[in-house]
Design brief:
This protein is an alpha/beta fold and 322 residues long. It is built from 12 helices and 14 strands. The chain has a 7-stranded parallel beta sheet with strand order 5-2-1-9-10-13-14, with helices on both faces. The protein has a 3-stranded antiparallel beta sheet with strand order 7-6-8. It starts with a strand and ends with a helix. The structure holds ligand FO1. It holds the Pfam family CofD. One of its GO terms (molecular function) is LPPG:FO 2-phospho-L-lactate transferase activity.
C-alpha cells in the first residue's frame, strides 16, 4: 500500500510510529509493497540565532529515528544546554525557546545547506539519511512559509511568530487570526503532488487541524490533490478537549467548536471520507463522512498501532473515491 500522511508535530509523529507498526504486522501485504510518504508542516519553522529550526519535520525525524525526547515529544533525548546557557550569558534574545546542544547540530547542518543553496526537501532527505525514519519525509513546500499570529493585548495589536505565541505565551493571548506568511506564493515541494496522486489513500493524523494540517492544505495545489483521494482522519479532540497541545485555542480563533464533529466539518466532506472518533464521541454524526468510534488515546504503542490499523482498514473499506 502507498500511503500519504499529512503530519504536524507530536501527535502526527506518534501516530506515524503506530502506522509503521500496523503495516509491519499486516498479513495481506508484502512488507516491501508498503510505503509511507509524510508531508510535513513547515509553518512552525523559525530562524533563531541565524539557524533555521523546523520543529515539525524534526519531531517526525527524531521520533521515527529513535532520537526524540519522549516525554516532551520534541527535541533530542539525552540533551544538554551549554549553547543555550552561553547565549543567555551573552544576553541573546529570545530566551523563551530552548535549543539543546544535540538539536543545534541539526539546525547547523540545515542552515549550512540552505546557505549553500540546497532546497529544504533535499536537506530533509540528507538529515534522514542519518536518522532512517522508515518513511519518506517531505516538507510541504521548499518555499519559506511561516505561521504568524495576530494578537491584541496591552502591548497593542501586532503579529507575532507562531512559536512566540505558542511557547512564550502558551497561547494564552487570544489570537485574532493566523496568517500563513508566504503560503499564497508557495509551491508544493518536489514529489508532494506526485506522492498524493499515486497514493492508495491519504491519512490525517491527530495533528493540530488549524496550524499543522491546515497549513499543509493551504499550500496551493495540495488541498485539490488530497480531495481527489480517499481521506481518513483521526480526531485530535476527545470529549470536547484536545488530547495534547492547544488545538482548542487555535480552533477558537477560526471560530470552530472544539469537538470531534466540528473538526470533521471544518475539514469538509469534500475532503474527508472517513473519521475516527473516540468512544466518548461515539454519537458523532458528520454529513457525508463515515464515522467510526474506538479508543483514541495513543496511550501505548499497541493502542497507537490499533488506531493506525483502524484508519487503514477504514480507508481500504472506503476504497477508491467514488
Ligand atoms: N516547545 C516549548 O514549549 N518550549 C521550547 O523551548 C521548545 C523548543 C523547541 C526546540 C526545537 C523544536 O524542534 C521544538 C521546540 N519546541 C518547544 C516545541 C515546538 O514549539 C512545537 O514542537 C511545535 O512547533 C508545535 O507543534
Amino acid at each position: 500500500m502507498r500511503i500519504v500522511v499529512l503530519a504536524g508535530g507530536i501527535g502526527g509523529a506518534r501516530f506515524l510510529r503506530g502506522l509503521k507498526d500496523a503495516l509491519h504486522n499486516r498479513a495481506d501485504q508484502a512488507e516491501s509493497q508498503n510505503s509511507i510518504t509524510v508531508v510535513g508542516n513547515t509553518g512552525d519553522d523559525i530562524t533563531l540565532f541565524g539557524l533555521r529550526v523546523c520543529p515539525d519535520l524534526d519531531t517526525v525525524m527524531y521520533t521515527l529515528g529513535g532520537g526524540i525526547n519522549e516525554e516532551q515529544g520534541w527535541g533530542r533525548a539525552d540533551e544538554t544546554f551549554s549553547v543555550r546557557e552561553e547565549l543567555i550569558a551573552y544576553g541573546m534574545q529570545p530566551q523563551w525557546f530552548g535549543l539543546g546542544d544535540r538539536d543545534v547540530a541539526t539546525h547547523i547542518v540545515r542552515s549550512q545547506m540552505l546557505a549553500a543553496g540546497y532546497p529544504l526537501s533535499a536537506i530533509t532527505e540528507a538529515l534522514c539519511d542519518r536518522w532512517k525514519p522508515g518513511v519518506r519525509l517531505l516538507p510541504m513546500t521548499d518555499d519559506q512559509v511561516e505561521t504568524h499570529v495576530v494578537v491584541a493585548d496591552g502591548a497593542g495589536r501586532r503579529a507575532i511568530h507562531f512559536q512566540e505565541w505558542w511557547v512564550r505565551h502558551r497561547a494564552q493571548i487570544p489570537a485574532e487570526s493566523f496568517v500563513s506568511v508566504g503560503a499564497d506564493t508557495a509551491e508544493p515541494a518536489p514529489g508532494v503532488l506526485a506522492a498524493i496522486e499515486e497514493a492508495d489513500f491519504v491519512l490525517f493524523p491527530p495533528s493540530n487541524p488549524v496550524v499543522s494540517i491546515g497549513s499543509i492544505l493551504g499550500i496551493p495545489g495540495i488541498r485539490e490533490a488530497v480531495a481527489a483521494k480517499t481521506v481518513v482522519g483521526v480526531s485530535p479532540i476527545i470529549g470536547g478537549a484536545p488530547v495534547r497541545g492547544m488545538a482548542d485555542a487555535c480552533l477558537r480563533t477560526i471560530g470552530v467548536e472544539t469537538s470531534a464533529r466540528a473538526v470533521a466539518e471544518h475539514y469538509g466532506s469534500d475532503l474527508l471520507d472517513g473519521w475516527l472518533v473516540d468512544e466518548a464521541d461515539a454519537d458523532t454524526v458528520v454529513e457525508g463522512v463515515e464515522v467510526r468510534a474506538l479508543p483514541l488515546y495513543m496511550s501505548d504503542p499497541e493502542r497507537t498501532a490499533a488506531i493506525a490499523r483502524a484508519a487503514v482498514d477504514l480507508a481500504v473499506e472506503l476504497g477508491e473515491k467514488s
